[in-house]
Design brief:
The protein folds into 2 domains: 38 residues; 54 residues, IHF-like DNA-binding proteins (HU Protein, Chain A). 44% of the residues lie in helices and 29% in strands. It is built from 3 helices and 5 strands, in the order ααβββββα. It has a 3-stranded antiparallel sheet with strand order 1-2-5. A two-stranded antiparallel ribbon has the order 3-4.
Length: 94
């Protein structure tokens, strides 16, 4: 499912106009993004948690040329699934 699919599913499930459900989805994602940018953690019980992990820079190699490159420090978003979601997915017939 992508973002537009999520918007359509919300509109159908909550009997909302598409524009309203799009506003809601955008508001949730924007708020989550701002929270992570501020360095805070997001926990949704039963689903999982989002956080920003800090990675130190290192010297690596370009796999194509073999040339050494310097990879700068970086902050990346990280998602850890909650036990309840993990169990639901594990028991699902895919």
């Amino acid at each position: 499912m992508n973002k537009s699919g999520l918007i359509a599913a919300l509109a159908k499930e909550a009997d909302l106009p598409l524009r309203k459900s799009e506003e809601i989805v955008n508001l949730v994602f924007d708020t989550m993004g701002k929270t992570l940018i501020a360095g805070d953690r997001i926990e949704i019980r039963g689903f999982g948690s989002f956080m920003v992990k800090q990675y130190k820079g290192y010297t690596g190699r370009n796999p194509k040329t073999g040339e050494q490159i310097t990879v700068e420090d970086k902050n990346l978003p990280f998602f850890k699934t909650g036990k309840e979601l993990r169990d639901k997915v594990d028991q699902a017939d895919l």
